Structures are given as structure tokens and as C-alpha cells.
Amino acid sequence: MSLSVRQVLQRVSEGTMSVEDALLHVKEKPFEDLGFAKVDLHRRVRQGAAEVIYGAGKTPEQIVGILEAMRRNGQGPVLITRLSPEAAEAVGRSCALDYHEEPRVGIVGDLPQPDGIGRIIVATGGTSDIPVAEEAALTAEVLGSEVQRLYDVGVAGLHRTLSHLEDIMSASVLIAVAGMEGALASVLGGLAECPVIAVPTSVGYGVSFGGLAALLAMLNSCSSGVTVVNIDNGFGAGYCANRINHMGVKR
């Protein structure tokens, strides 16, 4: 039986587990060595979330091996990012995989009940930004946050953004996903009091330089409270937003 450290401490508190047994359990290996990977089994204890599998560059067999090690040790739900359709098909033959092809995200296990302090809003400048936005949204949901999606609300039609003003102002965290000139992050940063995480995307014509123009614009935002992750890094934005959304839950 695999127990989390929190469960072990709870059982000691309730008197259903001895201190000696608890100490033995906590001393168990913090990782499992598979040869090609060392699966971190204590990451949830340190960071509040289990290890995430980065699918790009791994063979389906390696992904399955890591996934099985995590599930053996009570790690779940498991998030797999940058998972190609071909790899997803192979992984899906070994387990019940919920695959989202557009953002290339795979999920094994049931989503947890949201338990954050509020709601994360993921907004995109355009429809072309949705794959990156979905990576952010799904990441936050797997980690236990409630997510609302506001897609295609870019500044080329500002009335679309302003029609969601109540939602924007009530969010605990905003994720602004935009390519081109990346102006959406500054606009949202000027409307809301919560943190804004800007995600530049590689969407745009020639001189957008694969998202570099949006990245530099977001880094130079005049709106206070805007922070920026790397180009197309929806996962990083969703992970960070979830952490912010759970800060008030800590005791």
C-alpha cells in the first residue's frame, strides 16, 4: 500500500499507525530508478504536485515505464505534456488515457475536485492561441484548480474583452495567451487586481519572429503585476497559476 506523507502523519495523529511504522514509510525511496529515468516520488511532498511527464523526446515505452512507476506509488492523476498523437496511441494501449490532441496533453486518472482559493481564467487573443491556452488550462485543472476559458478576446476587438469584465475582475489569477504583438496581457493587467501570467505564442507573421515580438512586448508591459513565461509555455503558466491559486489554502 502506498501512502502520501500527509496520510502517514494523519494516521499517526489518529493513533492508527505507530511512530516506528510511520518513520519506516517516510524513509522509503524518494525516487524509483528505471535506468532511463529516475522517477521523483517525493515531489508532491516538496512541491504540492506529483511529477509531470514531458513527452517530447521520449519513446512510448519510456513514457509507459515512468507512468507505471508513478501509478505503482500512488502518484496521480498523471499529466503528460507535449505528447504526440503517435505516442498517445501507443500509451493508450497500456492504460486509460484521456488525450487532448490540440494541446498534445494526456491525462491518466480522474481530475481532482477544485480546492483553490478562487478561479483561474485563461484568455486568448485569438483562436490560433487555443492550443497553448488549453495546455495551461488542463495543467491547472489536473493540479486542482477551477478554470474558466475566455477564448478569442483579443485587443483587435476590445469590446470582446470588456464583455467579460466581471469575470476578469473576479478571477484569482489570469493567464493571458497571445501572439502577434502580445497586447492582451497589458490590457488584462490594467483591468484586474489579481496576478497576470502572460504567455507569448509563436502565432504571427514574419517579423513576429516566432513569438519573440510578443515575448518582448509582454516583458515591457506597463501594467503592474504582469509576469511572463517562455514562448508557447502553457504548461509553465498553468503550473504557476495553480500555485498562486492555492496559496491561501496553506495552513
From TrEMBL:
SMART domains named among the record's database cross-references: AIRC
GO molecular function: hydrolase activity
Domain of life: Bacteria
Protein name as it appears in the record: NCAIR mutase (PurE)-related proteins
Family annotation (PANTHER family): PHOSPHORIBOSYLAMINOIMIDAZOLE CARBOXYLASE-RELATED, SLL1489 PROTEIN
NCBIfam families attached to this UniProt entry: LarB
GO biological process: 'de novo' IMP biosynthetic process
All copies of domain PurE, residue ranges: 118-250
Xref: InterPro entries: P2CMN_synthase_LarB, PurE_dom
